[in-house]
Write a structure and sequence with these properties.
about 180 residues; alpha+beta; Aminopeptidase; eight-stranded mixed sheet; 5 helices; globular
Length: about 180
């Protein structure tokens, strides 16, 4: 079901405990982490978190992906699908980080792949997610994709994005899906 997740310039693989050092480097890098929740800067803690995550993955409660470049198989980022709400048929996504080695279109491609996985592989009808209020570029990106702002608080802006809206937008982005 989640084996072949690929687009024009990137692909996803499920994270494993062996990815702890890469994930920790991303999450503790000041260039990438200013809009993320705080992470304990310990490799052991990250490995333990991933061990627990693998149990949630096995129960189909969460999926954490490493994002790779297709041209070099180099790890360039992460993204996570979680907080599955069955009665709302909705999933959340986040932990979206891309490093300086990303491809020119990897942000768009990784978002498109997240929605393909959530809507088609997992069968959800909508996605709910939050973005830090000061993360203007990501807020603008989601709005351009057609996400609807549902609320905000002192820290975050909350969004909803439907499968129907994705299917309207995907026509414009087919070339990025390979």
């Amino acid at each position: 079901m989640l084996e072949e997740i690929t687009s024009k310039t990137i692909f996803f693989k499920l994270a494993d405990v062996d990815d702890a050092e890469f994930i920790l480097e991303l999450r503790t890098n000041a260039t990438y982490n200013k809009h993320l929740s705080i992470t304990k800067a310990s490799l052991t803690d990250q490995m333990n978190w991933l061990k627990d995550y693998k149990l949630r993955e096995k129960d189909n409660k969460e999926y954490y992906f490493i994002i790779y470049r297709k041209d070099s198989n180099e790890k360039i980022g992460t993204v996570r699908l979680y907080d599955f709400i069955d009665d709302k048929n909705s999933f959340c996504w986040g932990s979206w980080i891309l490093n300086e080695r990303k491809t020119a279109s990897s942000a768009l491609e990784s978002a498109l792949l997240v929605y393909k996985v959530g809507f088609y592989s997992l069968g959800f009808e909508q996605s709910h997610f939050d973005v830090r209020k000061d993360n203007d570029k990501v807020i603008a990106f989601h709005k351009k994709m057609g996400a609807v702002e549902t609320s905000k608080n002192d820290v975050d802006v909350f969004f909803n994005y439907t499968k129907e809206k994705f299917e309207e937008r995907i026509v414009s982005f087919k070339k990025y899906l390979g």
